[in-house]
């Protein structure tokens, strides 16, 4: 029994021995992260090498290379297509400004309470439902060919028809984004503003809308990425933008390389905007998590 007894010194010695061995058993997080990154890099390189080898060794690869990757056609097409892309940029900027304002107006009108304003809420709801249900190309066709058919003087500008069609289509989607932001603001915010003497419109303008707009910036950027891509649809009503210019080049060269140039231009323009959207979404999540603590 005496051999089984242990004093405080023995316990300290055991703890010391255990403590000496613990650092060796701790995983090295730095080396683990480096190993994971290296494995991911190697697997990605191997994957693309395998896919590239299969494509290059395919029987029809020489024909596809001549049709889609002609170096001379590529070099000749870049200046014309990049110049035409500025038409898309103008369409995007003008339509975006109009969509932001008109979409916010629709969202505010749909959120107004009271039975007297029911007709206003009904009309805005019908507008949103109709333009979200119709295919965008159909709306562009109806506006691009329908308005000139009415015979009004001074209505021969395809650019104006394109802006009008894109505004009507995307305002329906953006209004729903705004409305979701408005509904996300707690009713106590509006009640507190009203208790301080602000009217309904003043509370909406100074209290609700600033918070709602700040919360919906990332979703709005996602919608505008789609808007930028959909500007090519207006080529069907005669606007010579990037896609129409690539079609003209394709008809003139009997080669599809101009479409590859167009795709690269959109990638260069759109991917940074998509990454900016991801950064804003991540920052918004961090801010929401910090506020919830």
Give a description of the structure.
- This protein is mostly helical and 293 residues long.
- It has a single domain (75-282), classed as Orthogonal Bundle (MetI-like fold), CATH 1.10.3720.
- The chain has helices at 8-25, 29-56, 61-68, 71-111, 118-133, 136-149, 158-184, 187-195, 200-215, 217-230, 242-253, 257-292.
- Helix 4 (71-111) crosses helix 7 and helix 5 packs across helix 7.
- The protein starts with 7 loop residues before the first helix and ends with a helix.
User: Using only CA atoms, what is the Rg?
Assistant: 30 Å
Main β sheet profile:
none
Helix content: over 70%
The appropriate CATH architecture is: Orthogonal Bundle
Average pLDDT level: 84
Question: What's the total count of β strands?
Answer: 0
* Overall geometry: flat
Coarse structural class:
mainly alpha
Strand content: under 5%
Q: Order of helices and strands, N to C? A: HHHHHHHHHHHH
Looking at CATH, the homologous superfamily is MetI-like
Low-pLDDT residue spans:
1-6, 11-19
CATH topology: MetI-like fold
Write the layout of secondary structure elements.
Blueprint: H1 8-25, H2 29-56, H3 61-68, H4 71-111, H5 118-133, H6 136-149, H7 158-184, H8 187-195, H9 200-215, H10 217-230, H11 242-253, H12 257-292
In a few lines, what is going on in this structure?
The chain has helices spanning 8-25, 29-56, 61-68, 71-111, 118-133, 136-149, 158-184, 187-195, 200-215, 217-230, 242-253, 257-292.
